[in-house]
Protein backbone atom coordinates (compact mmCIF):
# COMPACT_ATOMS: atom_id res chain seq x y z
CA UNK A 1 0.00 0.00 0.00
CA UNK A 2 1.24 3.47 -0.76
CA UNK A 3 2.54 5.44 2.16
CA UNK A 4 0.63 8.51 3.09
CA UNK A 5 1.48 11.78 1.54
CA UNK A 6 -1.28 14.03 0.46
CA UNK A 7 -4.30 13.33 -1.59
CA UNK A 8 -7.67 11.84 -0.77
CA UNK A 9 -10.66 10.38 -2.41
CA UNK A 10 -14.37 10.43 -3.11
CA UNK A 11 -17.41 8.41 -4.03
CA UNK A 12 -20.95 9.49 -4.12
CA UNK A 13 -24.34 8.96 -2.83
CA UNK A 14 -24.33 8.28 0.91
CA UNK A 15 -22.96 8.69 4.63
CA UNK A 16 -20.98 6.66 7.97
CA UNK A 17 -19.14 7.24 10.38
CA UNK A 18 -17.77 9.66 8.60
CA UNK A 19 -18.14 10.06 5.37
CA UNK A 20 -20.46 9.21 3.18
CA UNK A 21 -22.54 10.40 5.90
CA UNK A 22 -26.01 11.26 5.60
CA UNK A 23 -24.64 14.36 4.24
CA UNK A 24 -24.49 15.72 7.67
CA UNK A 25 -21.37 14.45 9.16
CA UNK A 26 -17.87 13.90 8.18
CA UNK A 27 -15.85 11.27 9.82
CA UNK A 28 -13.16 12.27 12.15
CA UNK A 29 -12.23 9.68 14.57
CA UNK A 30 -10.67 6.43 14.99
CA UNK A 31 -13.34 4.59 16.81
CA UNK A 32 -15.63 4.60 13.90
CA UNK A 33 -17.09 7.89 14.70
CA UNK A 34 -17.70 11.05 12.85
CA UNK A 35 -17.75 14.73 13.07
CA UNK A 36 -20.35 16.92 11.57
CA UNK A 37 -19.60 18.49 8.30
CA UNK A 38 -21.59 18.46 5.16
CA UNK A 39 -22.71 16.02 2.57
CA UNK A 40 -19.34 14.77 1.58
CA UNK A 41 -20.43 11.53 -0.02
CA UNK A 42 -23.23 12.75 -2.09
CA UNK A 43 -22.53 11.51 -5.58
CA UNK A 44 -24.18 12.53 -8.76
CA UNK A 45 -24.70 9.03 -10.08
CA UNK A 46 -26.23 5.84 -8.67
CA UNK A 47 -22.86 4.22 -8.10
CA UNK A 48 -23.15 4.02 -4.34
CA UNK A 49 -26.11 3.60 -2.01
CA UNK A 50 -25.00 6.33 0.34
CA UNK A 51 -26.69 7.34 3.55
CA UNK A 52 -27.60 10.67 1.97
CA UNK A 53 -29.18 9.16 -1.06
CA UNK A 54 -30.90 6.30 0.74
CA UNK A 55 -32.66 8.43 3.33
CA UNK A 56 -33.44 11.33 1.04
CA UNK A 57 -35.32 8.85 -1.12
CA UNK A 58 -37.08 7.30 1.86
CA UNK A 59 -38.19 10.55 3.51
CA UNK A 60 -38.40 12.80 0.46
CA UNK A 61 -35.95 15.28 1.95
CA UNK A 62 -32.37 15.35 3.27
CA UNK A 63 -31.78 13.53 6.55
CA UNK A 64 -28.86 14.28 8.85
CA UNK A 65 -27.29 12.88 11.99
CA UNK A 66 -26.80 14.47 15.38
CA UNK A 67 -23.98 12.87 17.41
CA UNK A 68 -25.02 12.29 21.03
CA UNK A 69 -23.21 11.07 24.12
CA UNK A 70 -24.61 9.03 27.01
CA UNK A 71 -21.74 10.20 29.22
CA UNK A 72 -20.79 6.59 29.97
CA UNK A 73 -17.24 5.37 29.18
CA UNK A 74 -16.46 2.46 26.90
CA UNK A 75 -15.75 -0.65 29.02
CA UNK A 76 -12.80 -1.53 26.81
CA UNK A 77 -10.90 1.49 28.12
CA UNK A 78 -10.47 -0.36 31.44
CA UNK A 79 -8.73 -3.08 29.43
CA UNK A 80 -6.37 -0.67 27.73
CA UNK A 81 -8.72 0.39 24.92
CA UNK A 82 -8.34 -0.21 21.21
CA UNK A 83 -4.85 0.82 20.12
CA UNK A 84 -6.14 3.25 17.48
CA UNK A 85 -8.79 4.97 19.58
CA UNK A 86 -8.69 8.39 21.19
CA UNK A 87 -12.10 9.78 22.08
CA UNK A 88 -11.05 13.39 21.50
CA UNK A 89 -10.17 12.59 17.90
CA UNK A 90 -13.76 11.92 16.92
CA UNK A 91 -15.77 14.06 19.29
CA UNK A 92 -17.39 17.12 17.71
CA UNK A 93 -16.22 20.30 19.40
CA UNK A 94 -19.73 21.29 20.47
CA UNK A 95 -20.52 17.92 22.09
CA UNK A 96 -20.06 17.65 25.86
CA UNK A 97 -20.91 14.40 27.64
CA UNK A 98 -22.05 16.23 30.74
CA UNK A 99 -24.76 18.15 28.88
CA UNK A 100 -28.36 16.93 29.12
CA UNK A 101 -29.60 15.23 25.98
CA UNK A 102 -31.92 18.10 25.09
CA UNK A 103 -28.95 20.48 25.09
CA UNK A 104 -26.92 18.08 22.93
CA UNK A 105 -29.79 17.89 20.44
CA UNK A 106 -30.19 21.66 20.39
CA UNK A 107 -26.48 22.20 19.78
CA UNK A 108 -26.36 19.48 17.13
CA UNK A 109 -29.29 21.10 15.35
CA UNK A 110 -27.61 24.48 15.46
CA UNK A 111 -24.10 23.41 14.44
CA UNK A 112 -24.73 20.41 12.23
CA UNK A 113 -28.17 20.50 10.73
CA UNK A 114 -28.34 24.27 10.39
CA UNK A 115 -30.85 25.11 7.68
CA UNK A 116 -29.92 22.13 5.51
CA UNK A 117 -31.69 19.35 7.38
CA UNK A 118 -34.90 19.20 9.32
CA UNK A 119 -35.01 15.43 9.84
CA UNK A 120 -32.21 13.56 11.56
CA UNK A 121 -31.04 10.40 13.30
CA UNK A 122 -29.91 10.57 16.91
CA UNK A 123 -26.42 9.12 16.57
CA UNK A 124 -24.93 7.70 19.76
CA UNK A 125 -21.46 7.39 18.30
CA UNK A 126 -19.33 8.17 21.33
CA UNK A 127 -17.78 5.38 23.36
CA UNK A 128 -19.96 2.24 23.73
CA UNK A 129 -23.42 3.63 24.31
CA UNK A 130 -25.07 0.32 25.22
CA UNK A 131 -22.68 -0.05 28.16
CA UNK A 132 -24.96 2.34 29.99
CA UNK A 133 -27.31 0.29 32.21
CA UNK A 134 -30.61 -0.36 30.45
CA UNK A 135 -32.69 1.43 33.06
CA UNK A 136 -30.79 4.64 32.28
CA UNK A 137 -30.27 4.09 28.56
CA UNK A 138 -33.90 3.45 27.58
CA UNK A 139 -35.34 6.70 29.01
CA UNK A 140 -32.60 8.60 27.19
CA UNK A 141 -33.42 6.90 23.89
CA UNK A 142 -37.15 7.50 24.42
CA UNK A 143 -36.41 11.16 25.01
CA UNK A 144 -34.51 11.44 21.72
CA UNK A 145 -37.23 9.62 19.80
CA UNK A 146 -39.81 11.89 21.39
CA UNK A 147 -38.65 14.77 19.20
CA UNK A 148 -40.83 14.91 16.10
CA UNK A 149 -37.99 15.51 13.62
CA UNK A 150 -35.97 12.53 14.85
CA UNK A 151 -36.57 9.68 12.41
CA UNK A 152 -34.59 7.09 14.34
CA UNK A 153 -31.50 6.08 16.27
CA UNK A 154 -28.06 4.83 15.33
CA UNK A 155 -26.37 3.12 18.28
CA UNK A 156 -22.64 2.57 17.95
CA UNK A 157 -21.38 -0.20 20.19
CA UNK A 158 -19.27 -3.33 20.65
CA UNK A 159 -20.34 -6.89 19.82
CA UNK A 160 -19.92 -7.87 23.48
CA UNK A 161 -22.29 -5.13 24.67
CA UNK A 162 -25.55 -6.21 23.05
CA UNK A 163 -27.18 -8.71 25.37
CA UNK A 164 -30.51 -10.41 24.67
CA UNK A 165 -32.42 -8.15 27.05
CA UNK A 166 -31.03 -5.05 25.37
CA UNK A 167 -31.92 -6.02 21.81
CA UNK A 168 -35.44 -7.06 22.88
CA UNK A 169 -35.94 -3.73 24.63
CA UNK A 170 -34.66 -1.86 21.57
CA UNK A 171 -36.97 -3.83 19.31
CA UNK A 172 -39.93 -2.92 21.55
CA UNK A 173 -38.87 0.72 21.45
CA UNK A 174 -38.65 0.68 17.65
CA UNK A 175 -42.13 -0.84 17.40
CA UNK A 176 -43.72 1.52 19.91
CA UNK A 177 -42.14 4.63 18.45
CA UNK A 178 -42.52 3.60 14.81
CA UNK A 179 -38.93 4.72 14.25
CA UNK A 180 -35.91 2.97 12.86
CA UNK A 181 -33.11 1.71 15.12
CA UNK A 182 -29.78 0.70 13.64
CA UNK A 183 -27.20 -0.98 15.86
CA UNK A 184 -23.71 -0.33 14.54
CA UNK A 185 -21.16 -2.91 15.70
CA UNK A 186 -17.47 -2.14 15.74
CA UNK A 187 -15.65 -5.13 14.30
CA UNK A 188 -12.78 -3.71 12.20
CA UNK A 189 -11.64 -7.08 10.84
CA UNK A 190 -12.69 -10.72 10.71
CA UNK A 191 -9.13 -11.85 11.39
CA UNK A 192 -8.53 -12.88 15.01
CA UNK A 193 -4.87 -11.86 14.90
CA UNK A 194 -5.94 -8.35 13.91
CA UNK A 195 -8.52 -8.14 16.69
CA UNK A 196 -5.82 -9.15 19.14
CA UNK A 197 -3.38 -6.61 17.74
CA UNK A 198 -6.01 -3.87 18.03
CA UNK A 199 -6.80 -4.95 21.63
CA UNK A 200 -10.47 -5.30 20.82
CA UNK A 201 -10.96 -7.89 23.55
CA UNK A 202 -13.63 -9.77 21.63
CA UNK A 203 -13.44 -12.36 18.90
CA UNK A 204 -15.09 -12.73 15.51
CA UNK A 205 -17.61 -15.27 16.78
CA UNK A 206 -18.81 -12.68 19.28
CA UNK A 207 -19.67 -10.42 16.32
CA UNK A 208 -21.61 -13.18 14.52
CA UNK A 209 -23.63 -13.95 17.65
CA UNK A 210 -24.39 -10.28 18.28
CA UNK A 211 -25.32 -9.73 14.64
CA UNK A 212 -27.74 -12.64 14.81
CA UNK A 213 -29.39 -11.32 17.98
CA UNK A 214 -29.82 -7.88 16.44
CA UNK A 215 -31.28 -9.05 13.15
CA UNK A 216 -33.49 -11.73 14.69
CA UNK A 217 -35.56 -9.08 16.48
CA UNK A 218 -35.88 -6.89 13.40
CA UNK A 219 -33.34 -4.20 14.28
CA UNK A 220 -31.03 -2.83 11.62
CA UNK A 221 -27.42 -4.04 11.69
CA UNK A 222 -24.44 -1.95 10.71
CA UNK A 223 -20.74 -2.80 10.89
CA UNK A 224 -17.67 -0.66 11.23
CA UNK A 225 -14.47 -1.81 9.50
CA UNK A 226 -10.94 -0.45 9.21
CA UNK A 227 -8.85 -0.97 6.09
CA UNK A 228 -5.07 -1.07 6.42
CA UNK A 229 -4.67 -2.76 9.81
CA UNK A 230 -0.95 -3.58 10.29
CA UNK A 231 -0.12 -7.02 8.93
CA UNK A 232 -3.25 -7.33 6.78
CA UNK A 233 -2.90 -7.94 3.07
CA UNK A 234 -5.32 -6.74 0.42
CA UNK A 235 -6.75 -10.27 0.34
CA UNK A 236 -7.30 -10.10 4.12
CA UNK A 237 -9.25 -6.86 3.73
CA UNK A 238 -11.39 -8.29 0.94
CA UNK A 239 -12.05 -11.37 3.09
CA UNK A 240 -13.34 -9.12 5.86
CA UNK A 241 -15.71 -7.32 3.50
CA UNK A 242 -16.86 -10.56 1.88
CA UNK A 243 -17.46 -12.26 5.23
CA UNK A 244 -19.60 -9.54 6.81
CA UNK A 245 -21.59 -9.10 3.61
CA UNK A 246 -22.20 -12.83 3.27
CA UNK A 247 -23.38 -12.94 6.87
CA UNK A 248 -25.94 -10.22 6.21
CA UNK A 249 -26.09 -6.55 7.20
CA UNK A 250 -27.99 -3.36 6.49
CA UNK A 251 -25.30 -0.72 6.69
CA UNK A 252 -21.54 -0.45 6.55
CA UNK A 253 -19.08 2.13 7.70
CA UNK A 254 -15.47 1.79 6.76
CA UNK A 255 -12.38 3.89 6.61
CA UNK A 256 -8.64 3.73 6.23
CA UNK A 257 -6.38 3.30 9.24
CA UNK A 258 -5.39 6.59 10.84
CA UNK A 259 -2.64 7.05 13.40
CA UNK A 260 -3.87 9.32 16.16
CA UNK A 261 -1.59 11.13 18.56
CA UNK A 262 -1.25 9.71 22.10
CA UNK A 263 -2.50 6.25 21.16
CA UNK A 264 -0.63 2.93 21.41
CA UNK A 265 -0.77 2.82 17.62
CA UNK A 266 1.14 6.10 17.57
CA UNK A 267 3.85 4.55 19.74
CA UNK A 268 4.05 1.58 17.37
CA UNK A 269 4.28 3.95 14.41
CA UNK A 270 7.13 5.85 16.04
CA UNK A 271 9.01 2.62 16.72
CA UNK A 272 8.52 1.27 13.21
CA UNK A 273 6.55 3.28 10.61
CA UNK A 274 3.25 1.64 9.72
CA UNK A 275 2.28 1.67 6.03
CA UNK A 276 -0.67 4.01 5.56
CA UNK A 277 -2.84 4.59 2.55
CA UNK A 278 -2.39 7.69 0.52
CA UNK A 279 -5.55 8.97 -1.09
CA UNK A 280 -5.11 7.56 -4.61
CA UNK A 281 -4.23 4.12 -3.25
CA UNK A 282 -7.21 4.11 -0.93
CA UNK A 283 -9.55 5.21 -3.68
CA UNK A 284 -8.27 2.41 -5.83
CA UNK A 285 -8.91 -0.01 -2.96
CA UNK A 286 -12.49 1.23 -2.72
CA UNK A 287 -13.05 0.38 -6.37
CA UNK A 288 -12.44 -3.24 -5.40
CA UNK A 289 -14.40 -3.12 -2.15
CA UNK A 290 -17.59 -1.41 -3.31
CA UNK A 291 -18.44 -3.93 -6.04
CA UNK A 292 -18.42 -6.64 -3.32
CA UNK A 293 -21.00 -4.86 -1.14
CA UNK A 294 -24.65 -5.73 -1.92
CA UNK A 295 -26.45 -2.78 -3.53
CA UNK A 296 -29.07 -2.60 -0.77
CA UNK A 297 -26.51 -2.05 1.98
CA UNK A 298 -26.40 1.58 3.01
CA UNK A 299 -22.92 3.06 3.03
CA UNK A 300 -22.47 5.41 5.94
CA UNK A 301 -18.83 6.18 5.49
CA UNK A 302 -15.94 5.38 3.20
CA UNK A 303 -13.11 7.38 4.70
CA UNK A 304 -12.33 9.28 7.81
CA UNK A 305 -10.67 12.50 8.86
CA UNK A 306 -9.79 13.06 12.47
CA UNK A 307 -9.14 16.41 14.03
CA UNK A 308 -5.94 17.59 12.37
CA UNK A 309 -4.14 18.54 15.57
CA UNK A 310 -4.42 14.88 16.64
CA UNK A 311 -3.84 13.19 13.29
CA UNK A 312 -0.33 11.85 12.76
CA UNK A 313 -1.15 10.26 9.43
CA UNK A 314 -2.11 9.86 6.77
CA UNK A 315 -2.63 13.58 6.16
CA UNK A 316 -4.26 13.73 2.77
CA UNK A 317 -5.14 17.38 2.73
CA UNK A 318 -7.83 16.69 0.17
CA UNK A 319 -11.29 18.20 0.59
CA UNK A 320 -14.07 15.58 0.87
CA UNK A 321 -15.83 16.81 -2.29
CA UNK A 322 -12.65 16.20 -4.24
CA UNK A 323 -12.31 12.74 -2.74
CA UNK A 324 -15.82 12.03 -3.81
CA UNK A 325 -15.09 13.13 -7.35
CA UNK A 326 -11.94 11.00 -7.39
CA UNK A 327 -13.87 7.95 -6.32
CA UNK A 328 -16.65 8.53 -8.74
CA UNK A 329 -14.19 8.92 -11.57
CA UNK A 330 -12.28 5.78 -10.56
CA UNK A 331 -15.46 3.71 -10.41
CA UNK A 332 -16.59 5.01 -13.79
CA UNK A 333 -13.21 4.30 -15.38
CA UNK A 334 -13.33 0.72 -14.13
CA UNK A 335 -16.97 0.37 -15.06
CA UNK A 336 -17.90 -0.85 -11.57
CA UNK A 337 -20.33 0.25 -8.84
CA UNK A 338 -21.62 -0.96 -5.50
CA UNK A 339 -22.69 -4.57 -5.87
CA UNK A 340 -21.50 -4.93 -9.48
CA UNK A 341 -19.29 -7.89 -8.62
CA UNK A 342 -22.25 -9.64 -7.04
CA UNK A 343 -24.85 -9.01 -9.71
CA UNK A 344 -22.58 -9.74 -12.67
S1 LIG B 1 -14.55 -0.22 21.61
FE1 LIG B 1 -14.81 1.71 20.44
S2 LIG B 1 -14.88 3.39 21.94
FE2 LIG B 1 -14.10 1.53 22.99
S3 LIG B 1 -11.85 1.75 22.91
FE3 LIG B 1 -12.48 0.52 21.11
S4 LIG B 1 -12.83 1.97 19.40
FE4 LIG B 1 -12.72 3.17 21.35
CATH class type: Alpha Beta
Q: How does CATH name the architecture?
A: Alpha-Beta Horseshoe
**Structural class, judged by helices and strands?**
alpha/beta
For the record, the count of structural domains works out to 1
Cofactor: [4Fe-4S] cluster
Domain Radical SAM core: 58-296
Keywords: 4Fe-4S, Iron, Iron-sulfur, Metal-binding, S-adenosyl-L-methionine
Pfam families: Radical_SAM (PF04055), Radical_SAM_C (PF16199)
List key phrases describing it.
binds iron/sulfur cluster, pyruvate-formate lyase- activating enzyme, seven-stranded parallel beta sheet, 11 helices, 35% helix, 344 residues, globular, alpha/beta
Q: What's the topology here?
A:
Blueprint: E1 25-27, E2 34-36, H1 51-59, E3 63-67, H2 101-113, E4 119-124, H3 134-145, E5 150-157, H4 164-177, E6 180-188, H5 192-197, H6 204-216, E7 220-227, H7 234-247, E8 251-256, E9 259-260, H8 264-271, H9 279-289, E10 298-301, E11 311-313, H10 320-334, H11 340-343
Parallel strand pairs: 3-4, 4-5, 5-6, 6-7, 7-8, 8-10
Antiparallel strand pairs: 1-2, 9-11
GO molecular function: 4 iron, 4 sulfur cluster binding; catalytic activity; metal ion binding
Pfam family, one: Radical_SAM_C
Keywords: 4Fe-4S, Iron, Iron-sulfur, Metal-binding, S-adenosyl-L-methionine
Could you characterize what this model shows?
InterPro entries: ELP3, Elp3/MiaA/NifB-like_rSAM, Radical_SAM_C, rSAM, rSAM_horseshoe, rSAM_sf, YhcC-like. It holds the Pfam family Radical_SAM. Keywords: 4Fe-4S, Iron, Iron-sulfur, Metal-binding, S-adenosyl-L-methionine. It comes from Desulfolithobacter dissulfuricans. GO terms for molecular function: 4 iron, 4 sulfur cluster binding; catalytic activity; metal ion binding. The structure is a single chain. This protein is an alpha/beta fold and about 350 residues long. It has one domain: pyruvate-formate lyase- activating enzyme (Alpha-Beta Horseshoe). The protein is about 35% helix and about 15% strand. Strands 3-4-5-6-7-8-10 form a seven-stranded parallel β-sheet, sandwiched between helices. Strands 1-2 form a two-stranded antiparallel ribbon. Strand 4, helix 3 and strand 5 form a beta-alpha-beta unit. Helix 3 packs parallel to helix 4 and helix 9 packs across helix 10. It is globular, with a radius of gyration of 18 Å. The N terminus is likely disordered. The site of iron/sulfur cluster has 11 residues, from loops.
